[in-house]
Specification:
The complex is a heterodimer of chains A (635) and B (233). In chain A, 35% of the residues lie in helices and 7% in strands. Chain A is of the alpha+beta class and 635 residues long. In chain A, the strands form five sheets. Chain A has a four-stranded mixed beta sheet, with no helix packed on it. Chain A has a two-stranded antiparallel sheet with strand order 1-3. Chain A has a two-stranded antiparallel sheet with strand order 2-10. In chain A, helix 4 packs antiparallel against helix 6 and helix 9 runs parallel beside helix 15. In chain A, a hairpin with a 2-residue loop joins strand 5 and strand 6. Chain A has a domain of 201 residues. Chain A starts with a helix and ends in a 10-residue tail after the last helix. Chain A is globular, with a radius of gyration of 29 Å. Chain B has 233 residues and is mainly beta. Chain B has two domains: 94 residues, Carboxypeptidase-like, regulatory domain (Immunoglobulin-like); 108 residues, Immunoglobulin-like, CATH 2.60.40.2060. Helices cover 6% and strands 45% of the residues of chain B. Chain B is built from one helix and 19 strands. In chain B, the strands form five sheets. In chain B, strands 1, 2, 5, 9 and 10 form a five-stranded mixed beta sheet that branches. The chains are: A alpha+beta (635), B mainly beta (233). At the A-B interface, helix 21 of A face loops of B.
Chain lengths: 635, 233
């Protein structure tokens, strides 16, 4: 009886099991894949998708894309054997700086479509996510138009119908002005949907959208205005080049967008003015992540000991105070940049190394030649004998004897005896510059200070640094406003905005802009304020002066030290300034410092910007795949 | 089994036999050479700065072979036989290239079956003529004339005329040890021009330099040069 019961039970169970529908049996939801509708029903999951999209934002210079993205353009020397090609190149390939990541555009479009279609998200979450997706998409189109000119404007996800005919997926290039218009109109459309919160730095805010709009409109305006000077750089369909009649409209938009930030309608942003030492204050803009920093608007944030770090400090820290024995000193600012910082009376002058009659000047202190200049000099560049972390950096090229000979060596630990003595002593700075051009030490006499992290251990490869990369900041908004106002002929407003930035740097004598000086002043001010922030190439491109600044002619010393305030001053080879200790016992100048301008020996190339470099090449593979794409001009 | 000498020999023979298999692609072997010319005179340009494109029709995709002209306007390409189209992109070179009425750039058809020389005939804006470059009294002196070739509505002015001197055969704005410029506005007589520059000193003394004269044309990126000459002194 018991047996029969068991058998009956089993057959019932088996029978019940077989009643399951075939389709149910085969349709098992996967446990390793989260489906689209699940993701877009939970704000936390949407945020993680968005986080990936934020991580893929393209920057020209980026702290986690390597120190070389900050190098080049005559502003610095690469002190690394493997990267001397930066100063040995004679032409940039036409494809350099290009970007064509329509995979990213598709992901952004899909994100926007999925958020729009979602029914389970709260209305507030949904509108913010949507606005952020559109911000990132506009931001990438801005990045593309800066580099490529007009590109196909794809604002929805495309899919292939397997018909063998791809012509429905082939789009021609939009006009360059259309892409700028798209960026501007998107920013206008989403600014009200984004939070006005100055403490929100790494996600899009109203101020970030407006800052992007101001910069984009300014770029478009200057391409329209200055593009007239290079008529060859245009395509008949407007894919490259903007008609000069549109300049005023763009400048007006740029000024309006910048003013919206300045008047506080996007939250209270202001210049960072916290530390009493103006140079330290300037350097701290990039280091201070607290809510005190109301200058930074949109940043790429990093976090130490949490996986999001970069090696900028490891690569560029001073050699003598390095946390890693063979990782240091790669990015050395050039004398070209150092001497461009004004004196406090608003005039330009080279760093004085000789007096009026051609005799060397003897300085008692290594920092004396740089005294009385724009505070941003010492905030951007580490000058000789600067105190970094635990010690003074040690930059000097050797002993200069009274007969003009130099006693030096290839390393600070390789001693030599001075004439008349027998005891070998250190004859070159621990940080270089050595006569043999030892890498990883400075070879220009300077190190970079901007972004360099003073935190303990920030130079170690294991820990690395978590200094932010600031994409938009208030000082640039002010300079954008100043430039737009000046281009519109309102020099009083332009001067007011520019003087705010200048007085923060210790240049308290107000400058008066007028029709004849404003262009040089705008170009100079952006270089002084925004060097190593990824602006120089795009600024020179939009003003159409890149072919003059990088004109393929070698830069002689006379060339270097003349016309310093001129916007079109040549900048084709990075020079250095080497300090030497004067050795002449009994002379009043014994032990003082003499400076000499030196072109580092690896600098054999001459920067040459050709007309074909104004817009990066669209590769032949892309044109083969889509014959509707027009080639760039002059390539 | 004992390994004998003939086993090893057989093994090596088999290995080398396997190596005799045909490669599936032959290396390119046909040489196309030529020079930029204007009515029989070569056109000098800056080394590695003026690119050209060579398209081969009949293949999927449309990727050209690209190269650049040498200082004396010469080019050479090692490739396969076939039908090619040679062109120079807009904005390149100190000369005009024929435009088609439809708006595109003209191409030169080249049917390659064996080594071939195809000179590229172009119309330069200017030509440096009768350049005489000599050394005298510690200076390099150049006497030359300039012929204006294009005189119609597309004509362009001279921006500068320069004499370049270098210690090696590469003589150009970016490779020179000494140069002297003459502003285009200061030129009065195109048929009789002279430029003079001091002979530069070199770390290793040599008793010769290389020199040539170049014209920078307003609104044109590439300069046009006279042939490089070796000047001994």
């Amino acid at each position: 009886m018991k047996k029969i019961f068991t058998i009956a039970m089993i057959s019932v169970l088996i029978g019940a099991e077989s009643c399951k529908k075939d389709s149910d049996f085969l349709n098992v939801p996967p446990k390793s894949v989260v489906t689209t509708d699940v993701v877009f029903s939970d704000p936390a999951l949407v945020l993680s998708v968005l986080g990936d999209l934020y991580n893929r934002v393209l920057d020209f210079s980026s702290l986690d894309a390597g120190w070389t993205t900050f190098a080049d353009f005559g502003e610095s020397f690469p002190s690394d054997n493997g990267f001397y090609n930066i100063v040995q190149n004679r032409s940039w390939g036409y494809g350099t700086w290009g970007t064509w990541d329509y995979g990213y555009v598709r992901d952004l479009n899909l994100f926007i479509e999925n958020v729009t279609a979602s029914t389970k998200l709260l209305a507030a979450d949904k509108s913010r996510f949507l606005a952020e997706g559109r911000f990132l998409r506009a931001s990438y189109y801005f990045e593309m138009v800066k580099r490529m000119g007009g590109v196909p404007l794809i604002t929805q996800s495309l899919s292939y119908d397997n018909s063998g005919n791809v012509s429905s997926l082939q789009f021609p290039r939009a006009k360059e002005s259309d892409i700028y218009d798209f960026v501007i109109s998107e920013a206008e459309a989403i600014k009200g949907l984004l939070p006005s919160d100055p403490t929100e730095k790494s996600r899009a805010t109203k101020a970030a959208a407006l800052a992007m709009e101001a910069r984009a409109a300014l770029y478009a305006g200057s391409i329209a205005k200055y593009g007239a000077s290079t008529p060859q750089v245009s395509l008949s369909g407007g894919e490259v080049g903007i008609p000069s009649g549109m300049a005023t409209g763009y400048y007006t938009k740029a000024l309006a967008a910048a003013k919206e930030i300045i008047n506080g309608s996007a939250g209270s942003y202001k210049l960072y003015q916290v530390l009493p030492n103006l140079s330290d204050n300037f350097a701290a803009i990039f280091l201070d992540k607290s809510s005190v920093n109301q200058e930074s608007i949109w940043v790429e944030d990093f976090k130490a000991l949490a996986g999001k770090v970069h090696s900028f400090t490891t690569n560029d820290q001073p050699y003598s105070v390095s946390d890693e024995a063979s990782d240091a000193g790669r990015l050395d600012p050039s004398l070209n940049l150092v001497q461009s910082f004004e004196k406090l009376d608003n005039t330009f002058a080279p760093i004085a190394t000789k007096d009026g009659s051609g005799n060397p000047i003897y300085y008692a202190d290594q920092q004396d030649p740089f005294a009385g200049r724009d505070a941003r000099l010492a905030g951007t560049v580490m000058l000789p004998h600067y105190f970094w972390k635990t010690a003074y950096i040690d930059i000097w090229g050797g002993y200069l004897l009274s007969n003009g000979n130099i006693i030096s060596s290839d390393d600070a630990t390789h001693y030599a005896a001075l004439p008349g003595t027998t005891t070998p002593i250190q004859v070159v700075g621990k940080d270089g510059p050595t006569p043999t051009g030892e890498p990883l030490r400075t070879q220009t006499g300077f190190y970079v200070r901007k972004y360099l992290d003073p935190a303990t251990g920030s130079g170690r490869r294991g820990r690395q640094s978590d200094v932010n990369f600031i994409r938009y900041r208030y000082a640039e908004v002010l300079l954008n406003a100043a430039e737009a106002a000046a281009e519109l002929g309102d020099f009083a407003t332009a001067s007011t905005y520019m003087n705010q930035v200048r007085s923060r740097a210790g240049l308290t004598t107000p400058i008066v802009l007028n029709a004849s000086n404003y262009f040089d002043r705008v170009v100079h001010e952006r270089r002084a304020e925004l060097s190593f922030e990824g602006h120089v190439l795009f600024d020179m491109k939009r003003w159409r002066i890149a072919t003059k600044v990088w004109d393929g002619n070698p830069q002689s010393l006379a060339d270097l030290t003349s016309n310093i305030g001129s916007a079109t001053k040549r900048n084709t080879q990075p020079w250095g300034l080497y300090p030497y200790k004067y050795y002449s016992p009994g002379s009043p100048n014994d032990g003082k410092w003499v400076f000499r301008e030196v072109l580092p020996s690896p600098v054999t190339g001459v920067l040459t910007f050709k007309l074909g470099n104004y817009y990066s090449q669209i590769s032949d593979a892309i044109i083969s795949a889509n014959p509707k794409i027009k080639r760039q001009p002059n390539q | 089994m004992k390994i004998k000498f003939h086993h090893i020999a057989m093994f090596i023979l088999m290995l080398s036999a396997a190596g005799c298999k045909l490669d599936n692609v032959k290396p390119p072997s046909i040489k196309l050479t030529g020079q930029l010319m204007y009515k029989g005179s070569p056109i000098g340009v800056e080394y590695n700065q003026v690119p050209f494109q060579l398209y081969q029709t009949g293949y999927k995709g449309n990727t050209p072979i690209t190269g650049t002209f040498d200082q004396d306007g010469a080019y050479s390409v090692l490739t396969f036989s076939g039908n090619y189209k040679f062109t120079i992109q807009p904005g390149q070179g100190p000369f005009q290239w024929k435009e088609l009425p439809s708006g595109g750039r003209d191409t030169i058809n080249i049917a390659l079956t064996g080594d071939q020389t195809v000179n590229i005939e172009v119309t330069p804006y200017y030509m440096v003529r009768n350049a005489q470059i000599v050394a005298a009294n510690g200076k390099i002196n150049a006497n030359f004339s300039i012929e204006k070739i294009i005189t119609d509505a597309t004509a362009k002015n001279i921006q500068t005329v320069s004499l370049f001197v270098n210690k090696t055969q590469f003589v150009s704005p970016s490779d020179n040890a000494a140069k002297v410029d003459l502003d285009g506005g200061a030129i009065t007589d195109l048929s009789n021009l002279s430029l003079s520059v001091n002979i530069p000193s070199f770390p290793v003394t040599q008793n010769y330099v290389y020199a040539r004269v170049g014209i920078r044309i307003a609104g044109v990126e590439d300069m046009i040069f006279s042939p490089v000459v070796k000047v001994s002194y």
